[in-house]
Amino acid sequence: MVFTASVIGSLGMAFLKRGALHLSRSIWSFLNLDLVIGVSLFLGSSVFYAWGIKDGQLSVLYPMVSLGYVWGLLWARLFFKEALTRQKFLGLGLILLVAGVARLNHQRALLQQGQRVEGTIIDYYRRNLNVRPGELEQQAYYPVFQFRDQSGQQHTVTSLVGGTVGVFEAPKKVLIVYPPAHPEKATVATTRYLWSTPLWLTITGLGLVALAMRALWRRRAIS
């Protein structure tokens, strides 16, 4: 939810920027369509933020808000043709690094405090990855698994992490870990489903920071 909110909120900022270009001294200029869309997107993102942090840890979720800067760079490039400078890549790398470390800490806490049970992958949710018509069809697969919590209640959960490879034939027995108070937030307790996303964020962030710092250092040395 927080991730979705960051996307919607950053897109709202892009529309606010477009609307601001049409402002004049007339108060009626504030009613232009781009500004209205921007404000609406901001309000919509607030709903997702509130829903996302309702049962989560603010210390873990709030760093994810900074991912809006990542989308902001994309919208700035697409809509306004703004240049992607070394400083921006440095900022992007730091944001990804912070988000990755926060997620790593969250997963570590889940393993330490979470409840482990045996579950079963019963199916896979398929998502089409094709962006353009006519492309070779490619799909991502997200496991749908069932398990029973400590009270014996059965839960069916679709994983938030998927992939294009490594799909098992269903049904398949797997280890499940979940926060004791929120079984609906369970995940498959394997390296792929626990660590792939935070490790990608952390490694990508470190790489961008290293490349940006190197470029800035070389530029300073030349000057």
Give a written overview of the molecule:
The chain is α+β, with helices and mostly antiparallel strands and 223 residues long. It has two domains: 137 residues, no CATH class; 77 residues. Helices cover 54% and strands 17% of the residues. It contains six helices and five strands; from the N terminus they run H-H-H-H-H-E-E-E-E-E-H. Strand 4 and strand 5 form a beta hairpin. The model has no long low-confidence stretch (mean pLDDT 83).
How many independent structural domains?
Answer: 2
Strand residue content = 15-25%
Give me the count of strands. 5
Net shape:
globular
Low confidence ranges: none
| Order of helix and strand elements from N to C terminus | HHHHHEEEEEH
Helix content: 40-55%
**Helix tally?**
6
Structural class estimated from helices and strands: alpha+beta
- On the 0 to 100 scale, the average pLDDT is 83
- Give the termini distance in whole angstroms: 46 Å
Radius of gyration: 21 Å
> What's the arrangement of strands in the largest beta sheet?
3-2-1-4-5
Main β sheet profile: 5 strands, antiparallel
